[in-house]
Fold this protein.
Amino acid sequence: MHGITIVGGGIAGLALAATLDSGRFHVTVHEQRNTLPTVETSLAMWPEAQQALATVGILPEIQAAGSAFEAMALRDVSGKAWFRAEVAGVIGVSRADLLRLLDAAVPETVARVFGAVTSLPGPGLVVGADGVHSVVRRERWGPRSLERLSPYLALRGIIDEPVPVDEGGEYWGRGELFGIAPASRQRTYWYASYRSDLGPGGVDVAAALDLTRRRFSGKAPGIGRVLAGAAPEATLAQRIWTVPALRRYTRDGTVLVGDAAHGMTPNLGRGACEALVDSVVLAGLLNSRPLPEALRAYNKRRVVRSQALRVASSAMTRLVLAESAQPLRDRILSVAGRLDRST
Ligand SMILES: Cc1cc2nc3c(=O)[nH]c(=O)nc-3n(C[C@H](O)[C@H](O)[C@H](O)COP(=O)(O)OP(=O)(O)OC[C@H]3O[C@@H](n4cnc5c(N)ncnc54)[C@H](O)[C@@H]3O)c2cc1C
């Protein structure tokens, strides 16, 4: 049997371990965390990701644990809606539920090693599923592939109250974003982003929450209500990092999946979805083709699409968090919203 070593037991690593043919490969997963994350956040799962979850065999459980997105409003920070749109086919799922279900789908034959990997393990194929700060990418792709720090801070969390229909959606201000969406079990998922010097590592969550309350004070009533209910122990705060453009995801016995390959800004809500698709595509190819051919086909199927999403996400971030261009953006959105309502 061929050996496959997966560095990182997050979304990408677990999905790969769950779908590789255990009769064909001896699979080992290295994960630095001993436990699953305790702070709950929500991830939007688009239809392609749901197909990947069906291949893993956990789509019914995800559908039962998650909540369907039904409508989405785009608003200014006072709460006035520019647009309201129906959203079909997207499920919001708690990251903790997703990781738990992926973890349970990994066969017993997969070896688990807990602890941080600091240099490339081997022999056999090494998969970098170790996220935006990937050791595998750094070791094989070198210093030009190092992750880049964006100027933006992101906070997110879940509060225990349902979101009123007329307060859900995304609020875009001058260099600031606030999001309110339904979460499973009648709760509310919220997120916020803006420029900040906090961090970059180990952001103090209470300080970040304080800063966010001050920043959004006096804005839409829905934002105030959500922030009043947010607690530091139920909030994550981190600076956003991204990965520079890569032309190939394979190099000298290694292959990258998920954020290790294409870590992007979160504004399209696609990073975890693409991580799932990478892993299911890679496993399908490795299970059915000789190794060199499988890796060539993986590059062909995944690089252009995921790099295009990486670029589109960063364009979206510039639009959502626009500063000097914000008045013009808002005028265009306001006119477009009026035209949309009149047709
Ligand atoms: C604010 C925010 C909101 C987001 N919202 C969405 C959304 O709505 N929808 C969506 O699709 N995506 C979203 N994303 C993106 C999504 O979180 C990531 O794309 C996804 O987590 C990538 O999964 P991954 O498995 O590739 O990497 P990670 O989730 O980073 O997992 C990497 C794993 O590797 C482990 N690891 C790292 N280094 C080592 C090492 N040296 N040794 C051993 N183990 C190691 C880590 O502990 C971790 O478990 C969002 C991201 C942010 C920041």
In short: Residues 160 and 295 are 45 Å apart (CA to CA).
